[in-house]
């Protein structure tokens, strides 16, 4: 049955759409559109359902991505991917964890739609150049050229990724304790010298409009934010996008969350999400799947 095949591959299809779009909401829209298209196909005439579904989702994602590019040019303040709560299984696949990390998703955002599709399908999910070419309607020669260009671009900008771990969570806990007690030096000791803090309020709530760089400036910013919290605010630890994170809940409502990028025992990046439109799915652990394909090429 068509529904059975779609359900079987849904985690893989969602993961592809999310990595291409940076939005769980848009990814769900793509899956809905793709399912309707799949329902119009006779499964008996499809030799490889998974490949066929990947092709549909890829092309629908490309359409959404091209439209989203225009919207994001008008976005108020810094843009961050819609955070997704990830389970322990994501951390077991280092490639998957890195590919959905905030840092990597921001790098992917700098690619054009076709480059992003090629990189995601080939370098993350392990599809051959020929399979990618069939998915996006390009020649294999063209896909090889795009893949080389996209890979060079990504590798020049990405930093070494460390997935959520007990050690990383301990660093986050020490950081938040230092922030709550106002210990500036203790904060700075936990921050990398070139740490970057990015906030996304979407123009709907108060948030820093531009990235803040450097341990001293980030420490001052964090202390300023902590002063705005009340005794009713509770801090909960979780994992988002394969990274250790803290959820700030006030009166039972998720007010904001911060994902932490850890490198060599220090915090290299803080990604603060306050945009309420992007927090509405933050309670649900979404299933991600890379399909068991070959890892990224060096």
From TrEMBL:
Pfam families: Sigma70_r2, Sigma70_r4_2. One of its GO terms (molecular function) is DNA binding. One of its GO terms (biological process) is DNA-templated transcription initiation. Keywords: Sigma factor, Transcription, Transcription regulation. The keyword Flavoprotein does not apply. Residues 6-69 form the RNA polymerase sigma-70 region domain. Residues 102-153 form the RNA polymerase sigma factor 70 region 4 type domain. SUPFAM superfamilies: NTF2-like (SSF54427), Sigma2 domain of RNA polymerase sigma factors (SSF88946), Sigma3 and sigma4 domains of RNA polymerase sigma factors (SSF88659). The keyword Transcription regulation applies. It comes from the Bacteria. InterPro entries: ECF_Sigma-70_Domain (IPR052704), NTF2-like_dom_sf (IPR032710), RNA_pol_sigma-70_dom (IPR014284), RNA_pol_sigma-70_ECF (IPR014303), RNA_pol_sigma70_r2 (IPR007627), RNA_pol_sigma70_r4_t2 (IPR013249), RNA_pol_sigma_r2 (IPR013325), RNA_pol_sigma_r3/r4-like (IPR013324). Belongs to the sigma-70 factor family. ECF subfamily. Interacts transiently with the RNA polymerase catalytic core formed by RpoA, RpoB, RpoC and RpoZ (2 alpha, 1 beta, 1 beta' and 1 omega subunit) to form the RNA polymerase holoenzyme that can initiate transcription. NCBIfam families: PRK09636.1 (NF007214), sigma70-ECF (TIGR02937), SigX4 (TIGR02957). This is RNA polymerase sigma24 factor. It comes from Streptomyces alboflavus. The lineage of its organism: Bacteria, Bacillati, Actinomycetota, Actinomycetes, Kitasatosporales.
